[in-house]
Amino acid sequence: MTGDPVTFDDVRAARARIEGKLRKTPVLTSTTLDRLFGASLRLKCENFQRAGVFKSRGAFNTVFTLGDADAQRGVVTSSSGNHAAAISLAARTRGIRAYIAMPKNALKSKVAAVHRYGGEIIWVESRGEVPTTEEYDATVARVQAETRANLVHPYNDPRVIAGQGTCAAEFLEECPDLDFLLAPVGGGGLLSGTTLAARGARSAVKVIGCEPEAADDAQRSLRAGHIVPQIGPRTIADGLRTSLGDLTFALISRDVEDIVTVTEQGIAEAMRLAYEVLKIVIEPSSAVPLAALLERKLAVEGRKVGVILTGGNADLDQLPWARPAER
Known about the structure:
The protein is an alpha/beta fold. The protein has helices at residues 8-18, 31-37, 55-63, 68-71, 82-94, 108-116, 133-147, 158-174, 189-200, 217-224, 246-255, 264-278, 284-294, and strands at 27-28, 40-45, 75-78, 98-103, 120-124, 150-151, 180-184, 206-212, 258-262, 304-309. The strands form 2 sheets. The chain has a 6-stranded mixed sheet with strand order 1-2-10-7-8-9, sandwiched between helices. Strands 5-4-3-6 form a 4-stranded parallel sheet, sandwiched between helices. Helix 9 (189-200) links the parallel strand 7 (180-184) and strand 8.
């Protein structure tokens, strides 16, 4: 035993727990992209996961970890989008209530997903355009006091991290000889789970985090050796605007090879590339690793590269190539 709060054994347990409840998502290839990047690409398509996003893995693992008595009190979380939908779906699947603290400026498409999956939205009152961590926490605390619902942190939770790690565990089982494995990083749940899966599989793969230049706290944190909070991120990759947590930072700083950043224009171009070449819908956050390849942030020529396409919940009324990308 390592004494770590979350281990590869937890990832394996999560795989067993969610089996039959979630999809084993496909891995796509593209000769066009291989020629473009001079590498052999494998693309793990979490946009085909239930709720259209990898976050269903952590949400289902957490909700189905709860004992029956605890589960009947429901769950509460805070999220501006994909985690909110995933928790709502997981709770509906188990037959319990989900309370979601959401900002009033959340994307309409993601609010609609929460409603579609039966989540109960509690709007976060904020003095600014974007709620602060303290404002989110105050809303969640109020709901907990009123309902006794179980708190589920969007990413800094061992159950969530273990669930997210099942994505890379599946990926490396199907593609064990990858040289690089790229994943976006916001709060770090997916990236830290990915490192656990790579370590547990005894893989020599180099795990690379990818994030927007306009929300580069993870890169700065890794280089500083401590968490550097995210302040005022302005990126179209709305799922990557959060800061790392202490659990995710510890795992990322231990095992991630590097974190690279990309431009807003690069994100928009990579997202469009996926639509035009792969013929699949991905959202801006999902396009960030592809943008890292487009902008030549890694030397991948002649190598085998895995990319986790994290989700497909794009706002179809606000596609980034239909307007200038924010810088």
